[in-house]
Amino acid sequence: MELADKVTVVTGGASGIGAALCRRFAEEGARAVVVVDVDHAGAQRAADGIAADHPGTKVVAEQLDVADGPATTQLVDRLVAQFGGIDLYCANAGIATGTGVDAPSRVWQQAWDVNVMGHVHAATALLPHWLERGQGYLVTTASAAGLLTMVGDAPYSATKHAAVGLAEWLSITYGQRGITVSCLCPQGVRTPMLFGTGDGTASPDDGASLAAETVKAQGVVEPEEVAQAVVAAVRTGQFLVLPHPEVADYEAARATQRERWLGGMRKLAARIAGQ
Asked: Residue 94's closest CA among 184, 32, 27?
């Protein structure tokens, strides 16, 4: 898919990868960019900046908690009515916890509701429109943790694996009916989730956690690099989007040399924890 003259929607669009995707879609000549975030003020700031730089693109901000299924359906239906359809929807919103298996049930539930059900709600809302239309493109932001694991964050690891599995299922089930799915799986990205901002998105303690330090040790890319990788994948309809190409080798090692890979991850976790 070429993005020129397309209607695009990005959740988690106020900052980080989401904001970079919104900017890049406008650069590609999208007809409309809808910046969606639970933080409406942040979404509006991002939308205003993009609109100022790209007057030829209609840029709007919308508030949405992606864990809310009925609200997601209402937003999708309203945007379809407003723009005549949605061409590309990026289910990008996600949260990390920095907790282990002993995290409180509410933490596990929130991770599940955002990192998995947010994608389920998006697909449920979009599919009727796209199947009637005969086409549609869904980009789900998972993580390299969904192909590998996240040292120091059990809820994140488990839910991101589920997000990858869901994306694969959607591709298999609807790929012959005009629906294209890409699954974005980056490692470290310079975002508020990883580094913190002091604005409530993440705390300084989060940035010092074992999970964050492990990710940083693997190499950090800029959100704009991730957006470039997504645009390239969307052009060809590629399923797996890896801004860190080495993740493909790690995944292959995990699949074919599981015991060795687990031993290496244990050593990595111990080394980072000792820093």
From this structure: 184
CB-count burial class (<10 Å; 0-12, 13-18, 19+) for 266: exposed
Gap between the Cα atoms of 198 and 218, Å rounded = 24
pLDDT at 189: 82
**Radius of gyration (Cα) for the chain, nearest Å?**
18
Tokens of 226: 């991730």
- The Cα 146–Cα 5 span in angstroms is 32
* CA-wise closest residue to 225 among 198, 245, 206: 245
Catalytic, 89? Answer no
Entry pTM: 0.90
Catalytic residue among 137, 156, 174, 250: 156
Cα–Cα distances (Å) from 45 to 14, 48, 59, 122, 201, in that order, read 8, 5, 11, 24, 15
pLDDT of residue 188: 81
Distance (Å, rounded) from C-alpha 97 to C-alpha 159?
A: 11
- DSSP secondary-structure letter at 181? E
The per-residue pLDDT for 209 is: 59
Which residues of the chain register pLDDT less than 50?
197-208, 211
The CATH architecture assigned to 7-246 reads 3-Layer(aba) Sandwich (3.40)
Q: Are 241 and 183 in contact (CB under 8 A)?
A: yes
CA distances, 213 to each of 104, 141, 233, 264 (Å): 23, 21, 29, 16
What are φ and ψ of residue 200, in 5° steps?
95, -10
